[in-house]
């Protein structure tokens, strides 16, 4: 059996003793994430004006503190597939999104609820505005391909098939 050395136990930690960790409490900020829940199917326009289709799912992770998301997009003949988690941190009073994809990218975004059904994903190189109206969602992504000015990346409209099936 491999033992954990004292240097392994202390790696990446401040050597000071930590206070006991409080059990997270679910609050109204977590419940706001429910707007994302569903099986979203959409069409739109991707890079260089290519037609695109998208399937995105958002579901609670057991405990309902975080959402997990899976996306599968076709832009022209190209495939873009990935997974992510969205959650609320009560210590920083902020929402965060972490995504990884089949192209090798891993992105972290600040997530902001602007009210009136508008949410924003704000990253260093990419940003998005998501607008929810009932069982419909418009998504517009921009990016900074050369690290400079923002440019359109894609835009699509989706319908929540899960909500439509309930009606």
How many distinct beta strands?
A: 10
Helical proportion, percent range: under 10%
**Largest sheet strand order:** 1-2-3-4-5-6-7-8-9-10
Major sheet characteristics: 10 strands, antiparallel, barrel
Low-confidence stretches: none
Computed CA radius of gyration, to the nearest angstrom: 19 Å
What is the average per-residue confidence, as pLDDT, rounded to a whole number?
92
Instruction: Please count the helical segments.
Output: 3
Which class best fits the helix and strand makeup?
Answer: mainly beta
> Which sequence of SSEs, written as H and E, runs from N to C?
HHEEEEEEEEEEH
Beta content: over 45%
**Straight-line distance between termini:** 56 Å
What is the global morphology? globular
Give a summary of the structure in a few sentences.
This protein is mostly beta strands. The chain has helices spanning 6-10, 28-31, 161-166, and strands at 38-45, 51-60, 66-75, 78-89, 94-101, 106-115, 118-122, 126-133, 136-143, 151-160.
Task: Tell me about this structure.
The protein has three helices and ten strands; from the N terminus they run H-H-E-E-E-E-E-E-E-E-E-E-H. It is mainly beta and 167 residues long.
Write the layout of secondary structure elements.
Layout (H helix, E strand, L loop, with lengths): L5 H5 L17 H4 L6 E8 L5 E10 L5 E10 L2 E12 L4 E8 L4 E10 L2 E5 L3 E8 L2 E8 L7 E10 H6 L1
Antiparallel strand pairs: 1-2, 1-10, 2-3, 3-4, 4-5, 5-6, 6-7, 7-8, 8-9, 9-10
